[in-house]
Amino acid sequence: DRFLGGIGINLWHLLSDLEKEVAAFDPENVIAFGAGTLAGTLTPTACRVVVNSKNIFSGGLGSGSAGGFFSSELKYAGYDNIIVSGKAEKPTYIYIRTDSVSIEDASSVWGRTTWETEERLTKQLGNRQLEILSIGPAGENQVPAACVVVNRSRSASRCGLGAVMGAKNLKAIVVKGSGGIKVADPEGFMEACREMTQKILKTETTRKLRKYGTPVSFAKWNEQSALPTLNFQVTQMDLDKAQGLSVDILKENHIQRNYGCFACPLHCSQYLAIPDGPYAGTSGEKIECQNLWDFGTKLGIENLAAIIKASALCFELGLDINNATGAISWAFECYQKGILTDKDTDGLQLNWGDHAVINTLLQKMARKEGFGALLAKGSREAAQIVGKGSEQFAIHIKGQELAEELRAFKAWALGITVAERGGAHT
Length: 426
Description:
Layout: H1 7-17, E1 30-35, E2 49-54, E3 61-66, H2 70-76, E4 81-85, E5 92-97, E6 100-105, H3 114-125, E7 131-134, H4 137-140, E8 148-150, E9 154-156, H5 161-167, E10 170-176, H6 186-201, H7 204-212, H8 218-223, H9 239-242, H10 247-253, E11 255-259, E12 269-273, E13 283-285, H11 289-297, H12 304-317, H13 321-336, H14 355-367, H15 371-375, H16 379-386, E14 396-397, E15 400-401, H17 410-418
Parallel strand pairs: 5-10
Antiparallel strand pairs: 1-2, 1-4, 2-3, 5-6, 7-8, 7-10, 8-9, 11-12, 12-13, 14-15
């Protein structure tokens, strides 16, 4: 009654069940998954699943959320929250149905990407209508930048939540529900939903989001010098170069169709494809404005196809793009300043905008291979190991890579600086 549902119930369990001394990777740690209070109903935009645990970077609150259809399916199976503690002896997944819950062997999907995991589990269980939440190689290897991936293209990111699942040998949670949700006043409830939906649909913001998704805001942020460019060295991408990342090009060359999460009238998601060039054949779902920040401005990539490819790779590997690109951009600036050389980077030349090298580093990070093992620690810890003044290029708050430029908007900066989980809005 005090905490309603979703994140409230999750945090109540964390505060009630955990001693302060418990570390993120300890078996005693708890990771909680909660469907929003109104998830599963027709309340517009009520589609979130919230994931909470100890924050790997700060030792405090870890929190992330994802849209899609997982939360509503969990409600239809009869559950609001899943609270996981302990550690499985071998790789496992949790299989939740309306009439049963079981812990299953995940050895057939351990070591697989999130996309491969979803495909294999749907085939093994003989049902393509399942909702699946999983981790990729990054989570299995307990990389702090690991996230939890839902529906292939939604992620509960930041704070190392995917790594906590990996430490528990929990590869995935699979849900199939057949129930429903009752409300006390169906007629009044539906009228309220209709009113809210109509209000949302009338806005200019909705019109733009339906056409382009959140990348529609990229140009404005850049014009206002409010983007983390070349590891925060400057605050703006060259305006002519930024035209290569425009939503007009995104719409013309890559967006195949638009769709939305459960019960959401915004329809701000897109199915994307790359028709030609070195990444021809790559397809995926939904990039956000921050994908353009992280790969475009932070790392200097100047074409959309390369950003779509890198973003899809992060979804497959289960890497949070904010934390992954934060560590990589630290390395690029250290290379630019001569602190790191080819001898340190497995022979890779870290030149701004080299998307082939960036994709290689993402793979190495997720698997902790070679130079990627250093990057996998995050920029703060990596800088402490390297020294040589590299600490000043590790841009973080509470140990977590900073996602956003802070120098343009003071109130925005204050909110991010004091945010409980560190280094991000929301």
